[in-house]
Amino acid sequence: MDIATLLGIVSAFGLVVLAILMDGGMSIFINPPSLMIVVGGTLGATMINYPLKEVLGAVNVLKHVFFAKPVPAKEITSQFVGYANKARREGILSLESEARTVDDDFLKKGLELSVDGVEPNAIQDIMETEVDFLRERHQLGAEIFTTMGSFAPALGMIGTLIGLVQMLQSMDDPSSIGPAMAIALLTTFYGSVLANLVFMPVAGKLKTRSKEENMVKEMITEGLVALAKGDNPRILEQKMLSFIPPKERNH
């Protein structure tokens, strides 16, 4: 699990809950009607805004927030230098056995294209098209959570208006003012918490993960094109090291 995500969840929600407990109890912050308005309204508005398939897909990409582990760039460089040395000694066809042992479908596809003798420019076009569509899918997932982050506070305001209307209609009954005021205030609270502690941070983390994965894919593409061209392993290494910040290249 990603440590930053875990620490963020613990610190954000933990401190909010602690502040509530220090000055009262959790029970006064639990209001089912308010939750129904904010959570149900946000999900409903999101499904109106996007096809159901895309919404379900966005839920599936949540795993990238918690469990995605980018491959170190230096590890990819070393892997390709090994491929280049083997291809230089035994020929490009020798990489066929390497392709069969690779778990990454993107890299496996590229190695198979290289072994099949596809032209370097064609390999670059094919792999860049894959990267472009991957980027679009990731952007859609982040966009959906950003949209949910904008809907949640709006639904909180709607709940506030509902609570105020109920309160104003029952001013002659003091016992009903409290529950109506709770809906008015807690829906705004729920909307703000969901937007600022869940949806917007998730969207931000997905954007970061997308950038990391795109960089890795671009490195792999550069390495595959160099292999197909028959570049010297040293030249290939220098091309791939250009993706790594200078201060990290010798560590």
How does this structure look, described?
- With 251 residues, the chain is an all-alpha fold.
- The protein has two domains: 1-30; 31-248, no CATH class.
- It contains ten helices and no strands.
- The chain has helices at 3-22, 32-49, 52-60, 63-67, 73-90, 96-101, 105-115, 120-169, 174-229, 233-241.
- Helix 5 packs antiparallel against helix 10.
- The longest helix is centred in the C-terminal third of the chain and has 56 residues, at 174-229.
- The mean pLDDT is 86.
List the helices and strands and how they pair.
Blueprint: H1 3-22, H2 32-49, H3 52-60, H4 63-67, H5 73-90, H6 96-101, H7 105-115, H8 120-169, H9 174-229, H10 233-241
Helix pairs in contact: 2-8, 2-9, 3-8, 5-9, 5-10, 7-8, 7-9, 8-9, 9-10
How would you briefly describe this protein structure?
The chain has helices at 3-22, 32-49, 52-60, 63-67, 73-90, 96-101, 105-115, 120-169, 174-229, 233-241. It is mainly alpha-helical.
Low-pLDDT sequence parts: none
What's the overall average pLDDT, rounded?
86
Task: Give the topology string: H per helix, E per strand.
Answer: HHHHHHHHHH
- The helix/strand class is mainly alpha
C-alpha termini separation? 24 Å
Radius of gyration: 26 Å
Largest sheet composition: none
Share of residues in strands: under 5%
Judging from the principal axes of the Cα atoms, what is the shape?
Answer: elongated
Number of helix segments? 10
Please give the domain count: 2
Percent of residues in helical segments? over 70%
* Overall strand count: 0
